Amino acid sequence: MPNIWTEKYRPQTFDEFAGQPVIIKRIKAMIEQQNMPHLIFCGPAGVGKTTLALLIAKTMFGEQWRQNFLETNASSDRGIDVIRNQIKEFARTKAVGTDLPKILLLDESDALTREAQQALRRTMESYTKTARFILSANFFAKLIDPLKSRCVVFKFKPLDFDHIDTIMDKISAKEGFTIDDKAKQLIYEVSRGDLRRVENMLQTASTITKSIEVSHIQEIASKAEPEAVKEVLELAAISKNFSDARKKLLRVMMSEGLSGLDVVPAFQKQIWGLDGVDDQKKLKMIQSCAEAEFRIVEGADEYVQLEALLANFAQSDV
Ligand SMILES: Nc1ncnc2c1ncn2[C@@H]1O[C@H](COP(=O)(O)OP(=O)(O)OP(=O)(O)O)[C@@H](O)[C@H]1O
Ligand SMILES: [Mg+2]
Q: Between 3.40.50.300, 3.40.50.1000, 1.20.272.10, 2.20.25.90, what CATH number should domain 227-313 receive?
C-alpha cells in the first residue's frame, strides 16, 4: 500500500472524483461513445488532471490499462526529440486487447517551446490512428493555437471548500485523527483549492498530532512560506538593494522549490508587516503583486515578472 497520501487517496473511480462535474459528464460520454478526441487538460496544480487521465485509461482498457497508457513529462530537459522518440515507440503499435486508440498523457506540455509544440503537433497527427493525446498544462496561454485547435479543451477549476471538506473528513476517519473547523478553513485557504497540497498538509500534521488544530497548520504553512521571502522583500523595499534581493530570491526559489505563483502571494502577505514603509507605498506594492500574478498566470515568464516586481519595490519614490 502506498504510504504517500496523495497516491493512496487518488480516486480510482469516477464517483470518487471531486468537482469538475461538466468535464466528468463529457468525458464519460466520450468513453461510452468510443469517440475520444485529443484533449487538453488545463488548470492549476492538484485539481485532478493526471487523475482523470488515469481514470480514462482504466475505464477504457480495464486490466490492460498499463500497456495502453503512457505518461511522460514535457518539462524535463530531455528535449522534444527524446519525447518524440518515446511517443513514437509507444504509438507505433496498436493497443493491446482492444481496438481503441492508446492514451498518451503529456504532462506540463506548456513548458515546451513554441517550436517543440509545433513538432508535437506533427507527431500527434502522425499517430492519430493508434493514439490519443491528453496534454496537461497549467497555463492555457502558453499553448500554441494549432495545438488548441486540434484538441477538445477542458479547463479545470480549483476545488471549493465543500469538496475539500468532504475529502478531509474521509481521510481523517480512515487515518484515525481529528481536525477542527478552523484548521480545515486554514488548510483550504493555504491550499487555494489544490488537493495535493491539502493531502500533504494533512499527512504532515498527522505526524505531529492526532488532534489537529489551527496552530499545527499555521506551523506547517509558515514553513511553506520561508522567512527568507520576507528578507528578499526587505532587501528590495527597505535597503533598495535590487541586486542582492534578486540573488537571494533565486536562491530561495531553487532551494525551496517555489514557483512564481508561490512567491507573489507570500510577498503580498508580508507587505503589510514591513516596518519602515509607509501605507501609500504598501498599497502600490500590493497592486504590483496583483499585476505580476496576473501576468504570470497569463503565461508571462515568471522570472522576468519577479525581477520587474523587485525593481518596482526598490524604486525609492514609488
Ligand atoms: N478532483 C479530485 N478528486 C479527488 N482527489 C483529487 C482530485 N484532484 C486531485 N486529487 C488528489 O490530489 C492528488 C494529485 O492530483 P493530480 O495528480 O490529478 O493533480 P494534477 O491536476 O495533475 O496536478 P499537476 O498540475 O501538478 O500535474 C491526487 O492523487 C488525489 O489524491
Ligand atoms: Mg498532473
A: 1.20.272.10
Q: C-alpha grid cell for residue 7?
A: 497516491
- What's the rounded Cα separation, in Å, for the pair 179 and 229? 29
Q: Which atom of ligand 1 is nearest to the CA of 195?
A: 12
- The answer to whether the CB of 201 falls within 8 A of the CB of 277 is no
Ligand 1 in reach of 5 Cβ (< 6 A): no
pLDDT in tens, 35-72: 999 999 999 899 999 999 999 999 999 999 999 999 99
Q: Cβ(179) to ligand 1 under 6 A?
A: no
Pick the CATH number of 161-224 from 2.120.10.90, 1.10.8.60, 3.40.50.300, 1.20.140.10: 1.10.8.60
C-alpha cell at 203: 499527512
Distance 292 CA to ligand 2 centre (A): 24
Cα 267 to its chain centre, rounded Å, is 20
pLDDT (tens digit, 9 = 90+) per residue, 234-268? Answer: 999 999 999 999 999 988 887 777 788 889 988 88
CB atoms within 10 A of CB 68: 22
- The full DSSP string for 241-290 is -HHHHHHHHHHHHHHHT--HHHHHHHHHHHHTT-TT--HHHHHHHHHHHH
Q: Is 260 left (phi over 0), alpha (psi -120 to 50) or beta?
A: alpha
CA 313, CA 288: separation in Å to the nearest integer?
9
Of 36, 89, 100, 10, the closest CA to residue 62 belongs to 100
Show the cell assigned to 181.
473547523
DSSP 128-175: TTTEEEEEEES-GGGS-HHHHTTSEEEE-----HHHHHHHHHHHHHHH
Q: Is 47 touching ligand 1 by the criterion CB < 6 Å?
A: yes
